[in-house]
Amino acid sequence: MNKIKTIDQAMEYIRDGMTVMIGGFMGIGTPELLIDAMIEKGVKDLTIIANDSGLPDRGVGRLIVNKQVKRIIASHIGLNPETGRQMNSGELIVDLVPQGTLAEQIRAGGAGIGGFLTETGIGTEIEEGKQKIQVNDKIYLLELPMKADVALIRASVIDKLGNVYYRGATRNFNPLIATAADIVIAAAEQVVEVGGIDPSDVMTPGIFVDMIVEGEK
Amino acid sequence: MNKIKTIDQAMEYIRDGMTVMIGGFMGIGTPELLIDAMIEKGVKDLTIIANDSGLPDRGVGRLIVNKQVKRIIASHIGLNPETGRQMNSGELIVDLVPQGTLAEQIRAGGAGIGGFLTETGIGTEIEEGKQKIQVNDKIYLLELPMKADVALIRASVIDKLGNVYYRGATRNFNPLIATAADIVIAAAEQVVEVGGIDPSDVMTPGIFVDMIVEGEK
Amino acid sequence: MDDTTAKQRIAKRAARELNDGDVVNLGIGLPTMVANYIPDDVHVILQSENGFVGLGPVPEPGCEDKDIVNAGGKCVTVKQGAAFFDSSVSFGIIRGGHVDTTILGALEVDEKGNLASHMVPGKMVPGMGGAMDLVSGAKKVIITMTHTSKGAPKILKKCTLPLTAAGQVNLIITELAVIEVTKDGLALKEIAPDTTIADILKSTDADVIISEELKVMEV
Amino acid sequence: MDDTTAKQRIAKRAARELNDGDVVNLGIGLPTMVANYIPDDVHVILQSENGFVGLGPVPEPGCEDKDIVNAGGKCVTVKQGAAFFDSSVSFGIIRGGHVDTTILGALEVDEKGNLASHMVPGKMVPGMGGAMDLVSGAKKVIITMTHTSKGAPKILKKCTLPLTAAGQVNLIITELAVIEVTKDGLALKEIAPDTTIADILKSTDADVIISEELKVMEV
Lengths: 217, 217, 219, 219
What we know:
Order of helices and strands of chain C: HEHEEEHEEEHEEEEEEEHE
Strand content of chain A: 25-35%
Radius of gyration of chain C: 17 Å
Number of helices of chain C: 5
Number of domains of chain A: 1
CATH topology of chain C: Glutaconate Coenzyme A-transferase
Shape of chain C: globular
Distance between the termini of chain A: 25 Å
CATH superfamily of chain A: Glutaconate Coenzyme A-transferase
Helix content of chain A: 10-25%
Order of helices and strands of chain A: HEHEHEHEHEEEEEHEE
Number of strands of chain C: 15
Number of helices of chain A: 6
Largest interface: A-D, 48 and 43 residues
Oligomer: heterotetramer
Radius of gyration of chain A: 17 Å
CATH class of chain A: Alpha Beta
Helix content of chain C: 10-25%
Structural class of chain A: alpha/beta
CATH superfamily of chain C: Glutaconate Coenzyme A-transferase
CATH class of chain C: Alpha Beta
Strand order of the largest sheet of chain C: 4-3-2-1-5-8-12-13-14-15
Number of strands of chain A: 11
CATH architecture of chain C: 3-Layer(aba) Sandwich
Strand content of chain C: 25-35%
């Protein structure tokens, strides 16, 4: 099973209207190669799930500037003024989610957890529309799992089976989204042979990765 | 802050009646050095939380054979006939928990999650006494977090700040219990200077580890 | 048929259920034997719930690594391209539906696909280990077991032992038959060449639907 | 006092709240400046919610590693003994009570310890990032901010902006005062040498209890 694909082969799996999770934190750890290709393909009406909306010229932000996104679920949109502008003008739906809750919702989606209880957001607008559950005199919000059609991750090093090693702080949401989508596409900075990553150093097991595209910078 | 302690210094933190989480899977990844010391100290009436009850001559099993345990919460007791014998004779309380639920309960305890929804155990005796919660026409069990007074972990390599690297399959429950106890004691196969473990290879950050005892085999 | 021959036959038949690229978890005992019969052109990735994917063969004596063991605590090897992780990640894989097939043993299975495999109250209480999570989480659950125990049927109208999971079993493979759990009941899909439908019905407590495409089991 | 001087004073005072061995998360902006004033004999471990502990100083130009950035996306370094992890582990640390102290900025704080820091509806909506999790999870929440904004009080009887967290703030440090959130209300613990109680009360909308142990703030 050869997981190495051309960018065009990978793009066949990203279509208008899909829900796409994208790794990265303020653009660091985001697969820019796949953003480039999505812009070139012009895929539209996307729902994006990501930590943040990037910068106007970096990461997820470029898809927003190019008006390919109809909705974004993220914890922070402050570094991309265009996100706020489109939100205020009604062009874009923005769902703001506390960062820890967002990470845990994606993990839950990938790990088959039906929901989890958290104190984060109690007493704030985040409560709206959510079940509250009492356990031993404490009130929690029930937060539900998140999944996506496609997840786009950025691998610092990947072997041909799809085992991933993320350098430094590029890890962030990447290992989480890799578990929570029907199709997982990795943009790779470096591809190595099977056996080139020590089994103890693997951060995303290859069983989660469907496709590898080379050429990420 | 010197985290390296003698075994006697570490044992001061383990007292009669405490709840103690112990890492390992059928004894692999269990800190035998700390089991030795608990047997020598004769600490009793312990509640143990661990994947399994080990073997009669290995891991958690030795504490059971030595009658230091009043209750064990575990997923499997089959390799230690003494556990079953003490359970049937009423000397020992055994709470059997599905392994994935147990791992997730400990993670939840460490990660400040108030509970989580799972399908595991639906339609079985595991349901008893638990809240059932419906989400989108599906029924889940609400499982609650677990914490302990002390966690005993086994580090293959540890630096003097307490950053841990676990070799091979010794990882299992160790990184989870390290997050979920008031005091965490690591028995170390090998202690290295700070900087001796690459920050990307750390599996339990040192902020979780209170004490390091050298001499684990 | 002696017990060893029966188990070999079951393991061999179960191996044919696996597809190239599948992530597979094999239970302890008979299910572990399945690995010996996987065709050379079918590459499956074996998951070990104690914390890795890429389980390899048993090592040569003297080449054991004490830190690499399977979920039964036995020394094993890992293949190139393996990955280790902790127990919460391991069960995230299992619970999250990332295991294509799990093959497990059983004490009893019934018409509703209920499974009892983890205890006989008052007698044998090993605990469920990872079995409850596996049967809830895996996409396909295959039960491998001898058809009867000391002559008593193990495929029942209704399980008598405490359940390990309700309604999760997909396929039952014994030395006599391959039986699918359908919404209409248990469907006999294959029959061993050295038995008869009458014999199977006699040694099965559950109602069995004879499939229209009934085949002879390859042994 | 100009804005820079005020912020330096606040950061310096906040640094004195940190204890040797503490795990600390500093918000973007003014809170980040606190790191510059931590005494040499106090070793704290800085957590960066994008995925590590052991945050070090800003690198020399030309020595930046593009893969090592802080939660503001700026190039940083890590100290020896640092550890990287993913976002779910990062917020497990935060939510699980393993951060001793978080120091954050604010738009408004009120008598109940309520905090508004993440949005001004219709005007500025950057989002809460990790702030909601941090203030819910950290053992101690310190708010650092200038006492007023263009002359308008920011310490209120009741927050007017959407809350970032309810009742989670422990201490407020401004250029004029150190105020503790107690169950009886806001307690003025320290007053800057260049102001008066009257001035503080005038620039504070909330009721303030003058602590019996009121001290002069070291600046």
